[in-house]
Amino acid sequence: MFDMVAAIYNMIRILLCEDQRWQKVMFSLSGTWDGLRGRKGPIPVD
Asked: In the chain, which stretches have pLDDT less than 50?
């Protein structure tokens, strides 16, 4: 539960404070999705 709250907090912080916010949010969501599916390592370059 703590990790989920921390992830939501970080998303809000990115949206409010960072440059290139939508790109960073999409990368964060992509990494979360990969983690849930058990994928590890760098993003493959096509």
From this structure: none
What percent of the residues of the chain are helix, what percent strand, and what percent coil, each to the nearest 5? 70, 0, 30
Helix 2-17 and helix 21-37, axial crossing angle in degrees, nearest 10: 160
CA 22 to CA 36: how far, in whole Å?
A: 21
Query: Whole-angstrom Cα distance, residue 40 to residue 46?
Result: 17
CA 31 to chain centre: 5
**pLDDT at residue 37 in the model:** 92
**23 token code pair:** 């790109």
